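Morning, I've got a small favour to ask if you have a moment. I'm working through a protein record and want to make sense of it properly. The fold is given in discrete form, as structure tokens running alongside the sequence. Can you walk me through what the tokens say about the fold? Thanks so much in advance, here it is:
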Amino acid sequence: SSGINAEYGQPIPLGTAVGNVGEKCEVHVLVKGLIDPAQEINRLTAKLDGVEKNVNVLKEKIDGHCEKVPEHVQLSNNQKLSALQAEMGTIETAISSFKKLAL
């Protein structure tokens, strides 16, 4: 089968969808001509809204930490926040890519 191999640090090819595999890995799949960009933008926007809500809830939880909250819980919450913020960035990049496809 034919495909596009992208190396780390190289520009992401246009026409790809993105998915997270864990916190440190993204998979880009060529979807140009296979999906409706407008529908994908709507789906990703809804997903972004959900992640943003989770970020806000977690930020409130972190801001409410007091000295009684164990350090390992604080660390865990900060790691979760970093992962959610990275996911937001990935979704925003995907939305931007699909907007280019919709033109």
